[in-house]
Amino acid sequence: MGPSVLCPSLVFLFWALVMVFLGIPSVQSLRFDLPSGHTKCIAEDIKINAMTVGQYNVVKNEEGASLPDHQKLTVR
């Protein structure tokens, strides 16, 4: 066997990996920057018949500052 001949198991592994990566669906994210006191309903931004899983973070405007008690996040 010369160096240009590939082992059949390596060829199979290569094509198996190609098929796995082609089968992975694309992932998209949504980000909303809302000023304090504003509301946003994201139901309009979610596609019909799509499964939606969410994670949210409340971010402070200034480093070292604590979030005021009156800021509220409602998730349904």
TrEMBL record:
Keywords: Signal. Residues 1-29 form the signal peptide. It comes from the Eukaryota. This is GOLD domain-containing protein. It comes from Nymphaea colorata.
